Model the fold of this input.
Amino acid sequence: MRTIKNYHCLLLLAIFLFHLQTVQSQVKPKYNILFIVADDLNDRLSCLGWPEVVTPNIQRLLSHGMLFKRAYAQYPLCSPSRTSFLTGWRPDHTGIFDDYIDPNTVLSSDVKYLPLYFKQFGYDIERYGKIMHGPFENDITWDYAEPDKDQSLTITAKNSALNEFPSGEWWVRSNTDSFTWDRTIAKHIVKRLRQTRTLPFFYGLGFINPHNPFTPHLSAWNKIGDPSVQELLPEDSSGTTSPILKGNGSGNIVIPSTPLNDRSDVPPIAFTIGQLIPSSYEWKRIIHAYDGDVVDTDIQLGLVLDEFDRQNRPQPMREGW
Done:
């Protein structure tokens, strides 16, 4: 049996349980829950044997939880996998096998998505970023969602734009502007966490990276690779290198030794969404860009964890206690 390591949609699922705020009216306080999803995140993490991929904030989250080393994507596409973990049913039960069928047109009316289950028990449920597959985000009725329903065309267009890029497309951002989709979402949920609440919450935080195309910031790119070699890097989707944009070389990136007949036992249906067979050098640069996107995502996660720490940090003892 083939062990699959690289998924189209292997997601980091983190449920962070904490007493961020006690609900006074309850005899037994309920835990608040933050549900984190990172799009297309595979096993290239420092905590899973890739120390060169610098992910201190995922490691920081792990220090308060548990790491499952045999957790696999339910299906190698976005919507089937997300529908599966949000309903608790496998794709062969949901009937969702592609990214184009609206789950609500197939699932029975008594299906209860995970956030709605918590809503049933008195939780405030809110979404920040991508939880369902983009075009079907509004299949779940949240108490608050960002982007909201009026912006549904925006998020759908963004997902469509991502899918227009060929597999393995990448470039490097060098601008000092910190705006990215994920950073905006992280900042907004931090702002929300600072507001007063009267109900326990279930917040969904969905990062859109490291989804193709891979567009790490230069600082993230340079946390990986060979600093002794500086190479010209592309700065946009055209692939044209910039005469002033240089970063670490990718020569030390390790790629697997792949037999020439490696795909001969794979069913043809597995290759219906294009194939990517670049040179070894280009493979290394694609992996380098992907790893850089992972580092970028880890940085955004750190913004959120910093707020957790701030709110849960033990207060200094007052004089006379």
About this structure: Residues 95 and 106 are 7 Å apart (CA to CA).
